[in-house]
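Below is how a single chain appears once it has passed through the pipeline. First comes the sequence as given, then the structure the pipeline wrote out for it. We keep one example in the README because the format questions we get most often are answered faster by looking than by reading.
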Amino acid sequence: MEGLNRTIDRKNIVIHRKLPEGIKIARIDLTREDVMNSPYCNMYKTVTKST
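Resulting structure:
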């Protein structure tokens, strides 16, 4: 898996999560400080750690 590149729009990230009840789509803004309190924070850290 690749991390975020420099040209990505960090204000409009779309995450597709496959759950037992179906696919959940979430849009997040990584430039906001409160994103670190979201359930997607660990997913973001995993993606960016690989770069």
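Residues 13-49 form one domain.

See the next section for the split statistics.
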